[in-house]
Design a protein that fits this description.
238 residues; seven-stranded mixed β-sheet; alpha/beta
């Protein structure tokens, strides 16, 4: 019965995600070059998918969401992160994503249309350009940067090691870092075991961390400091 519940609710959520993708695809064509379609996509997914799954989202520290262009760091659990985090995706925000995501039908167009920064992780030149584009997005376009510092999904294996790229971006732009800690989802949803328990899920937004005056040589220490914050918060969720 629990597996049936998982398949039924996930199926409905999947249909909703498809509807949102088609809708926002057409919106993105009309709003090309603006971050609006990315914001709309995230908000529609997160606002409806969680009730479908029977999960109540509790946001701690909502007052810490960016009030100025910032580098937003989030731990990356699975492809379902958009469901859990869509409700707090800020206005005027671009995502650092893998270029291969362009191959996803319709969604790839939405990524392009909403000015997201797409990187080839195997290409050092692409990474350097990504930093330059991120600095421009923050300092000139006044956008936030949304990035998963682990670089890939943890798939329920805990927090991965943070890569330096996100911190180099923040230091290069002299932009604050806002950490959003997403509680491990297995207590409400376990895709590996195909179990959907529902219940309360917590997301915590930590106070901004300033990078004013930092140099590139400080990136390693900054990454270690923020990674330790994530570990501490994850260990102390209710």
């Amino acid at each position: 019965m629990s597996t049936l519940n998982y398949r039924l609710r996930m199926g409905i959520a999947g249909v909703w995600a498809a509807v949102v993708t088609v809708l926002v695809f057409f919106v993105s064509l009309l709003s090309w070059g603006h971050t609006f379609s990315g914001w709309l996509y995230a908000r529609l997914l997160g606002g409806v998918s969680m009730p479908i799954l029977g999960i109540q989202l509790r946001i701690i520290g909502k007052e810490n969401l960016p009030t100025q262009p910032s580098v937003i760091l989030i731990n990356h659990q699975s492809n379902l992160d958009a469901f859990f985090l869509g409700r707090i995706f800020p206005w005027k925000t671009v995502v650092i994503a893998k270029r291969e995501m362009l191959k996803v039908p319709l969604f790839g167009i939405i990524l392009l249309a909403s000015r997201n920064i797409l990187l080839d992780r195997e290409d050092a030149a692409s990474a350097k350009k990504g930093i330059k584009d991120a600095v421009k997005a923050i300092n000139e376009d006044k956008n936030n940067i949304w990035i998963f510092p682990e670089g890939t999904r943890s798939k329920g294996k805990g927090l991965g090691t943070f890569k330096k790229g996100a911190f180099i971006m923040a230091i290069a732009a002299q932009a604050p870092i806002v950490a959003i800690v997403n509680q491990p989802m297995e207590h409400v949803l376990d895709p590996q075991k195909k179990l959907l328990k529902g219940g309360v899920h917590y997301v915590k937004v930590l106070p901004a961390i300033s990078t004013d005056g930092m140099k590139f040589r400080d990136a390693d220490q900054l990454a270690a400091r923020v990674e330790a914050l994530f570990h501490n918060e994850i260990e102390n969720f209710p």
